[in-house]
Amino acid sequence: MGDSLGDQTSSSIGGRFWVLSDEDDGVDDVDSTVLYLYCEKTSHESQNCLLHPMPKPVAITYGVSRNELIFHEIPASSDVTFKHDSGKVGKISVEGGTLTSHEIVKELAWILPGNHQWDLQPTEGGAFKALFPSKAYLARMTKIIRVPVPEIDMFLIFEEWSAADLDPFSLAEVWVKVHGCCYKERCDYPSLFAVGSLIGKTKEVDMEFTRSHFEVRMKVEVTRVEFIPTTTVDHTYGGEGYGLLFKVEGEKAKIKSDVVMQDTDMDDDTKGTEGEEKEFSKDADLAPGGQAKNSSGQQNPPTTSSLPILQA
User: Fold this and answer.
1) pTM for the complete prediction?
2) Strand ranges in the chain using DSSP code E only, listed in sequence order
3) For 45-98, how does the pLDDT look when each residue is reduced to its tens digit (9 = 90+)?
4) pLDDT digits over 15-51, tens only?
5) Angle at CA 89, nearest 5°, toward 85 and 94?
6) How far is the C-alpha of 218 from the C-alpha of 206, rounded, in Å?
7) CA distances from 241 to 24, 52, 232, 236 (A)
8) What does the DSSP 8-state code read for residue 125?
9) How many CB atoms are closer than 10 A to CB 153?
10) Max Cα–Cα distance, the chain, nearest Å
């Protein structure tokens, strides 16, 4: 009981946890087989973890040609063990004041007696994450929810632990053609991946197309296609500078096709409408018998000749 919270935290890193004893309502500091802090394995001490001497990854930055395209990739490690939730993980918080983890463990010994090893891990808002002895114990406590602490005006609140993931965003995958790479660079397959990194992460380079054309064709993952630069991007290769132009496949041709079709349709419609109006105008201006109408739509009176009419 004399150990402080600081002693408890440091001992947890070394693989030592508070454990309840049947003979005493207090808490003893004992060694036990646990999952260690760095790799969550049990075959070694934390200070001898194999993850310490291993090379550490660094973030890789893509899309550096424009701020709107920049994103950073953190390489995932294949040597990390992910501990899955067993359904026995709960959240314990204090209502009406604050209690140390040591004091909470003492209350848990009275609420759930036994030899269970309580490892309280601090989380946000002063709450603690804890592994319960069984799913049934956790279900019972989350159903009770509020448990009063004797002699003080406080309550222990029991809830299920929720480790919900954040909502990720997705990258768009597009084929682009790059103009401006010199002949040697177009033949340098590994270096072409660096060219694609100016707008995103290069996934594939079509070398069959690239070797037979003056352009490089590649598949790239980008944050937003509309921000792929349409102006020259300067870069150097072999100590010489070249300007690169990126063109998304199919985008430009589609726009041109739409414009031509729209112009053609408008011209045809306009011509047809104008022809119909002219025809209608001709028909409308003539009354039955071929006599013209005035602007009010009435038939104009027949014009009389000033010459005398001779009768037979």
Assistant:
1) 0.51
2) 16-20, 27-31, 60-62, 71-73, 89-95, 121-122, 128-131, 146-149, 154-160, 172-179, 201-205, 215-222, 233-237, 240-248
3) 666 777 778 888 899 999 999 999 999 999 887 766 666 566 788 899 999 888
4) 333 333 333 333 333 334 445 566 666 666 666 777 7
5) 150
6) 6
7) 78, 42, 12, 4
8) G
9) 9
10) 152
